[in-house]
Amino acid sequence: MKLDVLAKSDNSIIQKNIISKIRDLINLKNLEPGDKLPSERMLSEKFEVSRGNVREAIQKLEFYGLLKSIPQSGTFVANIGVIAMNGMIDDILRLEEPEFKSLVETRILLELKTVRLASTRRTEADLKMLEQALHAYRDKVLNGEDAVQEDLLFHLAIAKASGNSTMNNFMLIIIPEIITNFQKYHVCDAGLSKRGITDHQAIFDAIKSQDPQLAKQKMKDHFKELYVYCYNLT
Asked: Pick from 152, 164, 150, 151: which is nearest to 122 by CA?
């Protein structure tokens, strides 16, 4: 399991540009619900951007329910009126990059729920992935290496084990931004990495034993420094 951290500033501007052009294309061609958009290749050539950029913009519009991609068939306008679609796209384009503290707070709220769900829904395959992430984090910490990515990959594995694809998608959206800025904002002391090994093990054990209340409490214990950062709690 590998997480690629992207430099998002330039990419965000490109993505908003493409979303704006897709909106204009829908309006220009009077596309209605169920109508098909041109292919990614055609859009990338028309907008003079990479297919990867087009794909990311389409995925974002899919996330908000404005487009729908069907494998081997293409991308289609979702079942929503033109006026509502234009309004929603305007709102998306106005969205600002979230403050780091709000990302961390969102992460706390999400993970207290996902860890409870994971403890009741986890499969043997989920446990195996969690254990691999647990060991990867431990090995890096004990070797004196930076383990921020491995830490967050463990938490992503919990989100996946929750069986809730929407929560998992939210985690995938905020995780890269958190990774990029964790050290910048000095959220946690580097000396806490070894305690993280014990914390992760306790969370894993609670999920494995399918004890949602214990899993939630162990996650809250693990987030002690995040609570201090977000809410000035001691």
From this structure: 164
State the DSSP string of 105-172: HHHHHHHHHHHHHHHHH--HHHHHHHHHHHHHHHHHHHTT---HHHHHHHHHHHHHHTT-HHHHHHHH
Tell me if 113 sits within 8 A of 212, measured CB to CB. no
What is the structure's pLDDT at 234? 54
The vertex-191 CA angle with 233 and 158, nearest 5°, equals: 70
CA angle 84, 87, 89 (to 5 degrees): 110
CB distance 207 to 218 below 8 Å:
no
**Which 3 state secondary structure label does DSSP give 36?**
strand
Tokens 């990338």 identify what position?
A: 44
d(CA 21, CA 25): 6
Note whether 66 and 80 are within 8 A (CB): yes
pLDDT digits (tens, 9 = 90+) for 124-159: 999 999 999 999 999 999 999 988 889 889 999 999
Helix or strand run (H / E) with residue 75 = strand 74-77
Do 215 and 118 form a contact (C-beta atoms < 8 A)? yes
Helix, strand and coil content of the chain, in percent to the nearest 5, comes to 70, 5, 25
